[in-house]
Write a structure and sequence with these properties.
The chain is α/β, with parallel strands linked by helices. The protein has one domain: 3 Solenoid (UDP N-Acetylglucosamine Acyltransferase, domain 1), CATH 2.160.10.10. It is built from one helix and 25 strands. The strands form three sheets. A ten-stranded mixed sheet has the order 1-4-7-10-13-16-19-22-24-25, with no helix packed on it. The longest helix is centred in the first third of the chain and has 28 residues. It is globular, with a radius of gyration of 21 Å.
Length: 208
Amino acid sequence: MYNFIHLHKYTKNTLIIFFILNLFYIFVIMKNNFIHSTAIVSDKAKIGNNNYIGAYVIIEDNVIIGDNNYIGSHSIIGDTGESIKYFDKEKKGIIIGNNNRFTKQVTIDNGTVHPTIIRDNVLILKNGHVGHDSLICDNVQIRCNGVVGGHCVLNENTILCLNSVIQPRIVTPIRAMIGAASNVTKKSKLISNYVHYGNPCKAIRLRS
């Protein structure tokens, strides 16, 4: 009886180890993702191939991440949108495309009405923030400490420079550049292919 129980325990433990190794192979090795041991990734998140997820990153529920993304340390993807009336409501999720780079301490809030969307080839530098329900289109750059309010649309090739803010529900035209320490409000008249600066932000010259 002792030998049988001992063998049974050994077999059971072996199967558990085999199962864990298979999960590791399927979700980590096969997809070629690097997930740091200190990162917290929800089992409800869906992650594609060849992604780097750095130290102390938090990826919460209802987040979909494509391929070839770099998410630097201490970033938080999928926290509740910063709107009091939505704190207790269902999260609508985040969709992140391919080939994006978030350097460090980047925060992207969960959608409240529809998903927050980051498309492809987006660069977000340290302490950049994307508010709930916003759409960040291809090739956008959000530089250090850049803040995008909720329900915004940053169209293709927009650049938000250091310490600048885009207030909620603003749409930037294609190739708009927002200069450092600027404040984009509803009074701002943004023009495609122009550099904008000030508080409130105004167009000052053609973008080179």
